[in-house]
Design a protein that fits this description.
The complex is a heterotrimer of chains A (about 240), B (about 290) and C (about 325).
Chain A (H helix, E strand, L loop, with lengths): L3 E10 L2 E11 L4 E5 L6 H8 L7 E6 L2 E2 L5 H7 L1 E3 L12 H11 L7 H15 L14 H13 L5 E5 L7 H18 L2 E5 L3 H7 L2 E6 L2 E6 L1 H6 L1 H9 L6
Parallel strand pairs in A: 3-8, 3-9, 6-7, 7-8
Antiparallel strand pairs in A: 1-2, 1-4, 4-5, 9-10
Chain B lengths: L1 H32 L6 H19 L3 H24 L7 H23 L14 E4 L2 E4 H23 L1 H11 L1 H6 L4 H26 L6 H16 L4 H21 L3 H17 L10
Antiparallel strand pairs in B: 1-2
Chain C lengths: L8 H18 L1 H4 L3 H26 L8 H18 L3 H23 L4 H21 L9 E2 L7 H27 L2 H11 L1 H6 L4 H27 L1 E2 L1 H4 L2 H14 L5 H20 L4 H16 L3 H6 L21
Antiparallel strand pairs in C: 1-2
Helix pairs in contact in C: 3-7, 3-10, 3-12, 3-13, 4-5, 4-10, 5-10, 7-10, 8-10, 12-13, 12-14
The chains are: A alpha/beta (about 240), B mainly alpha (about 290), C mainly alpha (about 325).
């Protein structure tokens, strides 16, 4: 039984079909790369899994627990953390307070302030932001905000982390650091991760498996090398003039 | 009984028509700028006061005084947009709401200071008259207001459909991002939309002033109805504002006819709150 | 780098000073015989209660209510009705006024807190109007004639002092509650809702539940204050009690002082009460609306973080009031 089992998920917006019968499975401590041209439904899938959208059909099970129709906060407490494609820090709160909110609420209602503070510092140290703890989140650079978003998600104690384009907009050095961070997630924290990425080098380099979405449907899945050579995948990218490679 | 009902409906449609003019303006402003202009009715009330004084001092018929009232209000609106709305147009909608709430109080206070809290009504030669259509009585003032409103709404619709600026406005209302990408000057479009709103308030206000007695605090009652209408019809939907106006006008009128008239005041607020709770996007709206 | 678990000296100092001021205020009836001064302070205390409790939902959670006067009115009417029909003393029934207001807030909040913030504001305004119309027309409220109470008479000074201490006590309770929230887990949750509700949900904050609690708390204290108020002025009717300038005033007070903190609305309430008193003397009462409107507009344009925000250096502090932890937030 996989950690996360997603079966037959469909999502429509009015007449637009964003996702059509998508299946996905992630084992614990696995890194799954989720790729596809722009508009293929990757973020929508994340939104469905994390409870922001409700799918019209399909099932989502985490550790055999049914999550469809649950609120985002319930899903978070069940063990799924996520970051956003366009980062959403609590801008006027300090970096530390940002992570503290997650530490206080992400695992249920029993966390006290000092325990949460300790947790928050732990995760800030993990992502390398401990020295900016008292700084206002809104004044961080983009790279720092992305790390903050990861720390915040980690503080909720997830079993599975959804990373939505963590590397977008980063310079080569920052991208390297991000890749290392993702690997440490698996090695040190033993998390399962689903990464949406356009930076091919990163995704192909880190992922255990890769899944490809196109127009809301899964068109390929397998080891990175296999997927890279799949003609359908190549065509999906070339055919839509996506030159993010 | 049936006649009484029909009478109530007809009266309701007439009054609803007058609301429609202002509601459509409010809806356009929301659609373009994503702000709820809670000062909209205060501007309308100002128009009523101007019409009152023009009539009282110079005997000018309110319909004629519109020629002066509209430019005055448009100028005021332009100044308001420039000084208050434009600086915060990228702030969250809540900020604009707060600011406009403050502005509404400034306007109300100003009217109170200038002209006292006395009830005013515009008593032209045709104010208390009516005419008959079969068994139904139509009040002259309401009918004139209805026609004027209809002209404004019709003109606005035409403008939105045919003119370049109108199309730009509609595009912005439907898909702000896309409009931006296509080179629409959002600031200019916002300004025009805001001024259109003020214009509709000017017309609607004068005619409401013809039909009902007014005093400075009244704008809060009017804005309650206008919000009820645009929420019911759907924010940003001109057709919805029209439909909502008629529905509200009729609901109020029928309630007033068959129960004590005080309860008809509740109708607007009840519709407002119920719609927000049950279906915030309204009948035709674009949603939240 | 700050150490976890340490309250900064600044916060301890501020809390101590605040408590000291409150204690001193309690001794005013003993120190002075000025009825006028006590009256001014009673009204100021009442506004502090209103502003600080409004701030719990409006400032901390970011859900601005334009109809907060409703809760005040509910408390006032409940104690007046119980006095009229049962002879019950408002000193005893005022807490019931708070409970009624809280219950109404719970019920209304169930439906309206799902809305986006500006729609919520409009909904609260609509609800305030509905309650006002009901007050004018339902027999139980006495309609336009209102309800008369006979104020207690322990002698002029003593009576004033009793009301003074009552309002003082309610104020202390309100301020303390707000201060406690600001330093609590609950306060962090509210701040996250205000900043970005969707992001808050995704990190596990049960936003709907927290908003509901905040709304209920924000209604309770005005309900109690209203309950005492009806006894204080001895006559209530819809016009006085549903005074919509109360709604705009509490909004101004919080924004002016600095939303989100406890000190902010207190500061705003004090300033606005002073302004109001000065205006009573200097200016025609009709001009008050204009002045309030100007203050609100100016606050939105120039001081969106409030005076406190400016003092701490724009764009303002970590908006959770005095969290037990790092508080001074500098630009990175």
């Amino acid at each position: 039984m996989a950690l996360l089992e997603v079966r037959g998920i469909s999502k429509r917006f009015g007449g637009l079909v964003a996702l059509h019968r998508v299946d996905l499975a992630v084992e614990s401590q696995e890194i799954l790369g989720l790729i596809g041209p722009n508009g293929s439904g990757k973020t929508t899938l994340f939104n469905v899994i994390s409870g922001i959208y409700r799918p019209e059909e399909g099932s989502i099970r985490l550790d055999e627990r049914d999550l469809v129709g649950r609120s985002p906060s319930t899903i978070c407490r069940a063990g799924i953390g996520r970051t956003f494609q366009i980062v959403r820090p609590f801008a006027k709160l300090s970096v530390l307070d940002n992570v503290m909110v997650a530490a206080l609420y992400g695992q249920g209602d029993g966390t006290g302030l000092s325990a949460a503070r300790g947790e928050a510092f732990r995760w800030l140290t993990f992502v390398g932001l401990a020295d900016r703890a008292s700084v206002q989140a809104g004044s961080l650079t983009l790279g720092q905000r992305k790390r903050l978003e990861v720390a915040r998600a980690l503080a909720t104690g997830p079993k599975l982390l959804l990373l939505d384009e963590v590397m977008a907009g980063l310079n080569p050095t920052e991208t390297e650091q991000a890749m290392l961070l993702v690997q440490r997630l698996r090695e040190q924290i033993h998390l399962a991760v689903i990464m949406v990425e356009h930076v091919m080098m990163a995704v192909m380099g880190i992922s255990d498996r890769v899944m490809v979405l196109h127009h809301g449907e899964k068109i390929a899945e397998g080891k990175p090398a296999e997927v890279a050579e799949n003609p359908m995948v190549v065509e999906a990218y070339l055919g839509t003039n996506d030159d993010r490679n | 009984m049936a006649v009484a009902l029909l009478q109530a409906v007809v009266t309701g449609v007439l009054v609803g028509g007058i609301y429609a003019c202002m509601a459509v303006g409010l809806s356009v402003v929301f659609g373009v700028m994503n702000i709820l202009n809670i000062a909209h009715a205060a501007f309308a009330l100002l128009s009523a006061y101007l019409a009152f004084w023009a009539f009282k001092l110079w005997g000018l018929d309110p319909i004629l005084s519109l020629l002066g009232t509209i430019p005055i209000l448009l100028a005021l609106g332009a100044g308001t947009y420039q000084a208050f709305i434009r600086p915060i147009r990228n702030s969250p909608p809540l900020m604009s709401l707060l600011l406009l709430f403050g502005l509404a109080h400034i306007l109300e206070g100003g009217m109170l200071l200038a002209w006292s809290g006395d009830y005013r009504s515009i008593n032209t030669s045709y104010t208390a008259t009516s005419f008959a259509l079969g068994e139904i009585t139509l009040s002259t003032t309401r009918s004139i207001g209805f026609v004027a409103s209809a002209l404004v709404v019709g003109g606005l619709s035409l403008f939105l459909k045919r003119s370049y600026l109108g199309k730009a406005i509609r595009a912005t209302m439907q898909e702000r991002e896309a409009a931006l990408l296509m080179g629409v000057d959002i600031d200019h479009v916002s300004r025009v939309a805001f001024l259109l709103g003020i214009g509709t308030a000017a017309v609607g206000g004068t005619f409401l002033g013809l039909v009902y007695a007014f005093y400075p605090y009244l704008h809060f009652m009017w804005i309650g109805r206008l919000f009820a209408i645009v929420v019911l019809g759907g924010m940003g939907s001109v057709g919805g504002a029209l439909a909502g106006s008629i529905v509200l006008g009729v609901a109020e009128s029928v309630t007033a006819s068959f129960t004590a008239s005080v309860w008809s005041e509740l109708v607007a607020y009840a519709i407002l709150v119920l719609t927000l709770v049950v279906r915030p996007s309204g009948l035709f709206g674009r949603g939240r | 780098m700050s150490q976890p678990g340490q309250q900064t000296r600044g916060q301890v100092m501020r809390a101590a000073v605040g408590a000291g001021v409150l204690l001193v205020l309690a001794t005013v009836p003993v120190l002075t015989s000025s009825i006028y001064l006590m009256h001014v302070l009673i009204v100021s205390f009442m506004f502090v209660v209103l502003a600080v409790s409004w701030n719990i939902i409006g400032g901390m959670a970011g859900y601005v209510s334009f109809g907060h006067v409703t809760f005040f009115a509910l408390g006032a009417y409940l104690t007046a009705i119980l006095y009229r029909d049962l002879g019950a003393s408002p000193f005893l029934t005022a807490p019931l006024g708070g409970i009624l207001a809280a219950a109404v807030a719970f019920f209304l909040g169930w439906f309206t807190l799902r809305l986006r913030e500006d729609y919520f504001a409009i909904a609260t305004l609509g609800l305030a109007f509905i309650f006002e119309v009901l007050a004018w027309n339902l027999p139980v409220t006495g309609g336009g004639s209102g309800i008369m109470l006979t104020a207690p008479n322990f002698g002029i000074h003593l009576t004033k002092a009793v009301f003074y201490l009552c309002m003082w006590a309610i104020m202390v309770a309100t301020v303390f509650t707000s201060w406690a929230i600001g330093r609590s887990r609950f306060g962090y949750g509210l701040a996250s809702i205000r900043e970005d509700e969707a992001a808050a949900e995704v990190v596990g904050v049960r936003t709907v539940r927290l908003k509901r609690v905040a709304f209920v708390l924000s209604a309770f204290f005005p309900g109690v204050a209203g309950g005492i108020f009806s006894y204080y002025i001895a006559y209530i009717e819809p016009g006085t009690v549903f005074d919509h300038s109360i709604s705009i005033n509490v909004v101004i007070m919080s924004i002016l002082g600095g939303i989100g903190t406890t000190l902010g609305p207190v500061l705003g309430a004090v300033i606005l009460s002073l302004v109001s008193e000065v205006m009573n003397v200097v200016v025609v009462s009709e001009a008050k609306l204009v002045v309030y409107g100007v203050i609100l507009v100016s606050a939105v344009l120039f001081l969106p973080q409030g005076i406190l925000g400016r003092l701490r250096g724009a764009p303002g502090p970590a908006a959770v009031a005095a969290p037990a932890g790092p508080s001074q937030v500098q630009e990175g």
